[in-house]
Amino acid sequence: MSKLFDLTGKTAVIVGGSSTLGLEMAVGLAEHGARIALLGRSKDKLDKAVTKMNDVTDEVKAFIADVIDESSLKKVCDEIVAWADGFDIIVNTAGKNSATPFFDLETAEWDDIMDVNLKGVFLSSKVFAKRMVEMKRPGSIINISSVSSTTPLSKVVTYSASKAGVNNLTQFLAREFAPYQIRVNAIIPGFFPAVQNRKILSEERINSIMEHTPMNRFGDPKELKGAVVYLASDKASSYVTGSLLRVDGGFGAMTI
């Protein structure tokens, strides 16, 4: 059974690889044998991420890239191919959030969040999947969505709208890339106290989340490892594409 999840010989590109969730998923992939390319904008954060990854693997390298800059992604794509002779797994984890009230929301902030959360997935998928097709290299693209993508959460209108777009784009790309044996899926995490959402977790909001979460707790980033390894494996999830996999403690199953 363990061979179903063996990623030995695979290279995984983690876009937003220095983030809390992105780094933990990178660790999970490395623990199952994958070579890891971490992408991010901050050299300092990436260096710290590589140091943590070195506890698991020495087959890891950091690459500076801006997810909303297509030329930057193309440059890094070439660098990763030179380093690892290609790649098999793309995990799009880069994200931004904001609790700005709707009537106070400026166009610039809307555009900024939409650019990172949605345009970033579009550009990353375009650049990396195109190279996979050119190299005749099948693989897996895994996008990180949110519980707010299916039922918008209060106070995070732009984030919710952007993640709904990620779901739609995921399913479109699953159909588009299927002829090339590239599977495209999304993980819908519940509430994981990452940097981008800690700032809006007031005591009142935490209580509301817990009342709506059957497991009555936040998720631990380590609990995303299983989902990402499953979707990355061309053995365990070979017939899975266009799916939206919830890892949310039951949040999405609740109504009243």
Automatic annotation (TrEMBL):
InterPro entries: NAD(P)-bd_dom_sf, Sc_DH/Rdtase_CS, SDR_fam. Gene3D superfamilies: NAD(P)-binding Rossmann-like Domain. PROSITE patterns: ADH_SHORT. Keywords: Oxidoreductase. It comes from the Bacteria. The keyword Oxidoreductase applies. Belongs to the short-chain dehydrogenases/reductases (SDR) family. This is SDR family oxidoreductase.
